[in-house]
Amino acid sequence: MVGVIELEEMEFYAYHGCFKEEQVVGNRFLVKVTLETDCTVAAETDDISDALNYVSVYEIVREQIMQTSHLLEHLNKRIIDGIYQKFPELLKATVKVSKMNPPMGGQMKCVSVTFSR
């Protein structure tokens, strides 16, 4: 049985961006991770050891977002790579990274980059 697991609106304060000010002042970032995986055994056994560990996914995201990048694309790739390194059995992973209130010269809620593999 294929299941879709989503970790939504993980919020972090970090220092990503091409402008020096962004790497000094920082900004809020939201991350959404969607994972497709075989949940058959976990659904039958009700045993956490048979399930994908959500805490491990969160820790991978947190670890990567705390390492400064110039580009959201680079950050996003590092997150997906880290998730697949820990969970190679995944059928699909989608990661969306959003920078809130980006310095674009005007009012904007966020800019986002989404990768799937």
Topology:
Elements: E1 2-14, H1 20-25, E2 27-38, H2 40-45, H3 54-65, H4 72-86, E3 92-100, E4 110-116
Antiparallel strand pairs: 1-2, 2-3, 3-4
Helix pairs in contact: 3-4
List keywords for this structure.
single chain, 117 residues, alpha+beta, four-stranded antiparallel beta sheet, 33% helix, 35% strand, elongated
Tell me what the structure shows.
There is one protein chain. It is built from 4 helices and 4 strands; from the N terminus they run E-H-E-H-H-H-E-E. It has helices at 20-25, 40-45, 54-65, 72-86, and strands spanning 2-14, 27-38, 92-100, 110-116. Strands 1-2-3-4 form a 4-stranded antiparallel sheet. Helix 3 runs antiparallel to helix 4 (72-86). It is elongated, with a radius of gyration of 16 Å. The model has no long low-confidence stretch (mean pLDDT 95).
Mean pLDDT, rounded to whole units?
95
Number of strands: 4
Main CATH class: Alpha Beta
Strand content: 35-45%
Q: Helical proportion?
A: 25-40%
Using the coordinates shown, work out and report the CATH topology: GTP Cyclohydrolase I, domain 2
User: C-alpha Rg, in Å?
Assistant: 16 Å
* CATH hierarchy: architecture: 2-Layer Sandwich
Helix tally? Answer: 4
Shape: elongated
Listing every helix as H and every strand as E from the N terminus to the C terminus, the arrangement reads EHEHHHEE
Tally of discrete structural domains: 1
Biggest sheet: strand arrangement: 1-2-3-4
Spell out the CATH superfamily.
Answer: GTP cyclohydrolase I, C-terminal domain/NADPH-dependent 7-cyano-7-deazaguanine reductase, N-terminal domain
